[in-house]
Specification:
Elements lengths: L3 E5 L6 E3 L1 H7 L6 H12 L5 H11 L8 H9 L2 E4 L3 H10 L2 E7 L3 H10 L6 E6 H4 L6 H11 L4 E4 L2 H9 L5 E3 L4 H5 L2
Parallel strand pairs: 1-4, 1-6, 4-5, 6-7
Antiparallel strand pairs: 2-3
Helix pairs in contact: 2-3
Length: 188
């Protein structure tokens, strides 16, 4: 019998993402296009963490005065607290027999930080990360990668309407834009 699968995005669904914290703390300024390109390469696993740090330091000389460990600590600080109610919701799904799979655009550094921060790690069965798949949502290739490993999920929640639109185009019909745990906890 196949497993019942819930695919969960991480940022904005499981944990709050505080992107601006990293930049504001050091008054960092970077050309948005260049920064986005470097982040995409890192989150698609095309450059290593060390390469990312070197390129970010070139783009933002303000970081050159910080030791590596402090840069990484600040970079990890964008992974904020849990979304209220997500631990209870994932526990409910596990009791109902679902396997919960993270499905997220993220770097290896942030994925590790997520596992350090969540209180509900025992509820998560596996993960599909962009840095492993080589593609980022909403690129259909990452959805195909997910399907190869787990099939089409019974439920997919993401805070990005673009990601949900792609999922629905690919036949993931029970895909929803996540706006909080309230409506999902009421269905318990």
């Amino acid at each position: 019998m196949p497993h019942k699968i819930v695919a969960l995005d991480i940022g904005g669904v499981c944990l709050q993402i505080l992107r601006q914290v990293f930049f504001d703390r050091y008054r960092l300024i970077a050309e948005a296009v260049s920064l986005a390109a470097i982040e995409r390469e890192f989150e698609c696993g095309r450059i290593t963490a060390a390469e990312w740090l070197g390129r970010i330091r070139q783009l933002m000389p303000e970081l050159q005065r910080l030791p590596d460990n402090q840069c990484w600590q600040q970079f990890r600080s964008i992974v904020g607290p849990e979304v209220p109610g997500i631990a209870a919701l994932t526990a409910h799904w596990v009791r109902q027999g679902y396997h919960i799979i993270f499905f997220s655009n993220t770097s290896c550094v942030h994925a590790d930080e997520v596992w350090r921060k969540i209180s509900f790690s025992a509820n998560i069965s596996d993960a599909v990360y962009s840095y492993d798949a080589g593609f980022m949502k909403p690129d259909p290739e990452i959805y195909y990668y997910f399907e190869e490993r787990f099939g089409v999920p019974d439920l997919y929640l993401d805070d990005s309407p673009d990601n949900i639109a792609t999922a629905r185009k690919l036949g993931w019909q029970n895909s929803h834009v996540f706006t909080g745990t309230g409506p999902w906890l009421q269905d318990k």
